[in-house]
Specification:
Number of helices: 15
Radius of gyration: 24 Å
Oligomer: single chain
Structural class: alpha+beta
Distance between the termini: 35 Å
Number of strands: 21
Length: 477
């Protein structure tokens, strides 16, 4: 899941601890070496840390939050302090890094921030179980061994999948339930994450599925090969001239020549073919650079404004984003009334919109005068969420689909902090992105105007029926 970069580009212009085996912190403890009967393969195959190393890592994560996160500028909230105290209390001797990652991830949950999170270590095992969480529950999205696309996942190792999803809420930083549905397919196939949820089989695990009205049980083994994650597709535009609708599929917010070419080509063809509606498909987009949204809005020939940003400035932030230390950049911000001597830079939406417009190439064709809509879902996150919000709050069109994985206003502009003893990293947010519209500014998510849910029957059919419903709606209205 990438953190948003709403300013970086635009400002270039101006529980239980298991004493398992060796306690040096460098060796790995294998199952055969582990005498503790409660020690799972996920724990024993992971490197271990001494208690002092684990406690120092917890201290570093907590201090990083104090130094950089906007919510902690007046001190760590009491519920977050309590969560870190619980993490320290769970350290009693050496601990596998996978367990420490779980303790730290759990400690971050009270922040209510999907961007501030632990980047999980690569050392784990995996289930070959490609699925997506639909309105009907978790459904296989493609064939996998004896499993078939459209199979409904019922239970894993005796645990209902709904209970596993609820369990994630206690261990995974998130802003709403949609985000949990979005990240579940990548997390609930990891042996270390399943161990956080007390799924600790010593061998293969039983999976109950429902197919054609019947329940059957399959035995799955954990493997050392992670499942192949679906790669974001390049930006692609299609035009349905009969309906007068263009669809821009955007799986990642990357502002580059490929995106600009796809946008230019779509707008030119839309003008020639009498298109009246553009739909930006953001269902598989977890963020990146919000300049992609500004590039489209700048081509509409209508006034628009952006979200505002409360950017906390710290040594860590300036080191991660040195462009903000530039006198030229700070002078540009000051021209918009930003006090760059303050610990938090309050950057208004009008200033962001103007800065975006100033860095984009001038349009060479007539503005697109039609409506621009967005198709959103639980995976719509970070800059993709902002893209949809800019469309909605500037009155450009309609939002279709399902609620996004972000709160309406949310923390972002995150960067990574290495935790060298642990071998993984913390990502910490440094800014608050504030929705334009006052109505719904503090909502738990960005909700669609027209609700269209992904269902099991859509997976079984192998068709994008949600997009088809969007096109039908636009034709009828």
């Amino acid at each position: 899941m990438p953190g948003i970069r709403p300013l970086q580009r635009l400002l270039l212009l101006t529980s239980l601890a298991f004493a398992c085996g060796d306690d040096t912190g460098a060796a790995e403890c294998t199952t055969s070496e582990c005498d503790d009967p409660t020690c799972t393969p996920a724990d024993c195959d992971a490197p271990t840390l001494r208690a002092d190393q684990a406690l120092a890592t917890i201290d570093r994560v907590e201090q990083s939050l104090r130094d950089a996160h906007p919510r902690t500028i007046d001190g760590l909230p009491s519920e977050v302090q309590a969560a870190f105290a619980d993490a320290r209390a769970a350290i009693d001797g050496s601990i596998p890094t996978s367990r420490l990652a779980g303790l730290l991830s759990t400690a971050l949950v009270p922040l209510g921030d999907g961007h501030t999170r632990i980047e999980l270590p690569a050392a784990t095992r995996w289930l070959d179980l490609p699925f997506v969480w639909t309105a009907d529950g978790p459904v296989l999205s493609q064939d996998a061994g004896p499993l078939r696309r459209g199979d409904l996942l019922v239970a894993l190792d005796g645990r209902a999948w709904s209970a596993l999803l609820n369990g994630l809420a206690d261990h995974v930083p998130h802003e709403n339930a949609s985000h949990l549905r979005a990240v579940a397919p990548a997390l609930l196939v990891r042996q270390d994450v399943l161990a956080w949820l007390d799924v600790v089989p010593t061998g293969p695990v039983d999976l109950v599925i429902e197919r054609d009205g019947r329940h059957t049980t399959h035995t799955l083994a954990f493997t050392d090969t992670p499942p192949a994650a679906p790669a974001p597709q390049p930006p692609r535009a299609t035009i349905d001239a009969a309906r007068g609708v263009a669809v821009l599929r955007l799986d990642a917010c990357v502002y580059d020549e490929a995106y600009q070419a796809a946008l230019d080509g779509m707008l030119a063809e839309a003008q020639q073919r009498g298109v009246t509606d553009i739909v930006v498909d953001l269902r598989n987009n977890e963020g990146g650079d919000v300049t992609v949204a500004a590039a489209l809005l700048a081509r509409l020939g209508r006034p628009w404004t952006a979200f505002s940003v409360e950017q906390r400035v710290s040594d860590g932030f300036l080191a991660a984003f040195p462009v903000f230390a530039s006198p030229d950049v700070q002078a540009a911000l000051m021209a918009f009334g930003v006090d760059v001597s303050a610990p938090v830079w309050s950057i208004p939406g009008d200033a962001l919109a103007a800065l975006f417009a100033g860095q984009l190439p001038p349009p060479t064709d007539a503005p697109f005068s039609g409506s621009v809509h967005a198709l959103i879902g639980p995976r719509t996150f970070s800059s993709a969420h902002l893209f949809a919000e800019l469309i909605r709050d500037n009155g450009l069109g309609v939002l279709f689909g399902e609620p996004t994985g972000n709160a309406a206003s949310f923390w972002g502009q995150d960067y990574a902090i290495d935790l060298p003893d642990a071998g993984f990293a913390l990502r910490v947010a440094t800014a608050r992105n504030i929705r334009i519209a006052a109505d719904g500014r503090d909502a738990a998510t960005l909700s669609p105007d027209v609700s269209l849910e992904l269902r099991r029957e859509h997976i079984l059919a192998g068709e994008d029926r949600v997009l088809a419903e969007v096109l039908d709606h636009l034709t009828e209205h």
